[in-house]
Amino acid sequence: MSRYRRRRLVNRAMEVLATAAALAAVAVLAIVVMSVARRGAGALSWDFFTKPQALFGQPGGGIANALVGTALLVLLATAIALPVGVLTAIYLTEFAPRRLAVPIQVVIDVLAGLPTIVIGIFVYALLVIGHTQSGYAGAFALAVIMLPLIARATQEVLLLVPATLREASLALGVRRWRTVVGVILPSSVGGILTGTVLAVARAAGETAPLLFTSSIFANTVQTDVTKALPNIPVLIFTYSEQPDPALHEQAWAAALVLMAFVLLASLSAKGLLARSRRKLAR
Amino acid sequence: MRTTFQEELDLLEATLQEEGQLVLRALRGAINALEQRDEELADEVIAFDDDVDQHYVRIEEGIQLLLARQTPVASDLRLVLAILHTNLHLERMADYCVTIAKLTKLVPEVDPGPRFVEGFEEMGSRCEEMIRVALDSFGNRDLAGAESLVDLDELIDRANRRVVERILELGGDPAMREYGLRMVVVSRALERIGDHAVDIGEQTAYLLTAEFREFTDASHPTPREA
Amino acid sequence: MTESFTIAPVIDVAQAREEAHPSKREAVFDIHDLTVSYGRLTAISGVDFQIFRKVITAIIGPSGCGKSTFIRCLNRMNDLVPGTRIEGQILYQGSDLYASGIDPVEVRRRIGMVFQKANPFPKSIYDNVAWGPRVLGMRKDLDERVEKALRSAALWDEVKDRLKKNALSLSGGQQQRLCIARAIAVEPEVLLLDEPASALDPIATSAIEDLMHQLKHEYTLVIVTHNMQQAARVADLTAFFSLEVDEERRSGVLVEYDATSKIFTNPSDKRTEDYVTGRFG
After folding, report:
1. Which domain holds residue B144?
2. CB neighbours of residue B14 within 10 Å
């Protein structure tokens, strides 16, 4: 076979392989979505979303309390992680001297890779032992997970802001901090929001930390953050260990809801990023 | 755009026109001094040359600065070069006026008669007319006007020849002979002033056509009648 | 008939140049033996210089001769580069610019800067000009302030109907004029321009040059340019910097500083002559 023909064949083969791999990845997601949907769709109903968990042994019920609880936990976690994450990123990119910036960067990277169960145990030891489980503890654990994600995303957009903009502002006689707030942050909002949304999507589904900090809860809608809050990941876990097949179906449905939420969050994050890019470049 | 440049260019040309007006005054003064045999007037004309020289130097410096700082091209460049040459011609004309005044001072006591005076008045007026036409056609960018200077110059050449004939008729005594000699030079000076006016016309033509061209050439006389 | 032959000249070609001559103006900057180094590299050494009020001073020279380094010392922008060492003295209106009690932020308000590539904020045209004054506490009559700055930058007529539009929608030349408006909105006394037109096309460049002629009535301007002809067209005084190589050290030095007309018709130093005639880059 001539060299030319062989090259062409190799090229074609690689194309085919690459396409097949991409299709396989898509297929995996499709299979997951489809199996979850198949098993859980039956439990979806209006009641499912609006009624709290049924009492033990009773039929029906829904995941309203878990929805509310997850929402509260995530909100609280974001309230903690967002300002800390953004400020950390600002410190790293704008103010930190070289020798401090590098170690702090390393710490953040390690934090991002920390297994969530470790975080869960840590928060358990810190906030739960000696007291009780609480929404605070759960939110704190989630915040620790979200923090490096938000910080890294913020850092990336801050670094994207051209140095000339900083120069221009400083040359006007504007102080460093005012430059950050007035020029650099506004340009970065899109990226920060994107990072936050993605972090939220991640946190909403973390099970391990909540097992330690907010897993013993009642069947009713709770809003008291000093006590354990019901949440979806733990609900899926506990239902899956029950013998009742109706509860299994509800667990699948809850998983479906979680997946839908992650999908929605990812899409909106992409949309936000595209919008902010357009604003900067126009 | 480039308002400073345009202003400097306009300034330069205005100074040139001003110098032209000075030359006209010098010429009129020189002719009058000659006709009236007025030594005082002749002295004033000689002193007046300093004013012309001042303008001359100022324009030279201005051109140097303009070329160095503004790097003019195309029509701007041609204008600057035309101003440069015209400046030289005007300065030479003024020098010839001084020559006429000095010669007037040398022979004040001789009265050659009215015909003579008429001759010089005629030549002087033609010169004035030529200078005016040269300056106006430069300022108005008038090619036809510039080219008309050739015909006007022809008239001066004829007048020059007539004056020379009259000088030859003077004949006789040493005073008259000396007078005649001096007047030949004066006539020649006036004829040269006319030539320089034609040269200015050539600069106008260069400015408008970008061609270096002499209207007539001494070595190739036009087939016109004397 | 005798008339007065002396006509008072209506116009004087060389007169305007005289007014800019050093001896006639007061010095705004007084620079003594300035040496700037980054780490082990010496950027400029031993510079003695004076910059005069309401005059356009141009700094020309080959690349790497320290022109930008020099100009950035004048508003302490070099402070932002780690490892910069400054020796010598820079007096601004009599006070030492680098004295310990001096606030560099205040320095930068009074000595503004326009950069090589236009860098407007990603805000509206109005906000670009208004943000600085707002942040620095000049909040009164903000609208008038913005209009005045835009007029001074010869941009008002082009943007007055679209002040709320994003500044990045303007052309390159307009953006640069916007940056000039932004700089003068905070009422500086001096304007430093670091190659302001090098990224612009000839027409936009010409607009900036005409603008500078107008601005010099109100501000002292210092411009760094690698385009000699621009310095010739625009500047009253020109300083030529060049590279001096001795043993292992390469640094920029001030070679000649004089009226622009002199630099471009009859420079005193052979190195200046070689540079402006293009015989040596």
Report:
1. 3-209
2. 15
Residue A57 and residue A77 in one domain: yes
Q: Which chains touch B (3 or more CB pairs under 8 A)?
A: C
CB contact under 8 A, A279 and C119: no
- Tens place of pLDDT per residue across chain C (281 aa): 333 333 333 334 445 445 555 556 789 999 999 999 988 888 999 999 999 999 999 999 998 889 999 999 999 999 888 889 999 999 999 899 999 889 999 999 999 999 999 999 999 999 999 999 999 988 889 999 999 999 999 999 999 999 999 999 999 999 999 999 999 999 999 999 999 998 899 999 999 999 999 999 999 999 999 999 999 999 999 999 999 887 777 889 999 999 999 999 899 999 999 999 888 75
Residue B53, domain member (yes or no): yes
For chain B, the domain total comes to 1
Domain count, chain C: 1
Question: How far apart are alpha carbons A38 and A32 in whole angstroms?
Answer: 10
B12, B51, B68: residue with CB nearest C261: B68
Helix (H) or strand (E) holding A278: helix A245-281
List of chains touching C (3+ CB pairs within 8 A): A, B
Cα separation of A260 and A26, whole Å? 16
Of the candidates C162, C129, C163, C123, the residue with the CA atom closest to the CA atom of residue C145: C129
Residue of C119, C166, C175 for testing the chain A interface, max A β-carbons within 10 Å = C119
pTM of the model: 0.80
**For chain B, what's the residue count?**
226
CATH number of domain containing C71: 3.40.50.300
Q: Does C268 touch chain A (CB under 8 A)?
A: no
Q: What is the ipTM of this complex?
A: 0.84
Q: Give the position of tokens 């022809």.
A: B154
- With touching defined as 3 or more inter-chain CB pairs under 8 Å, the answer for chains A and B is no
Question: In terms of residue numbers, what domain contains C226?
Answer: 24-96+104-276
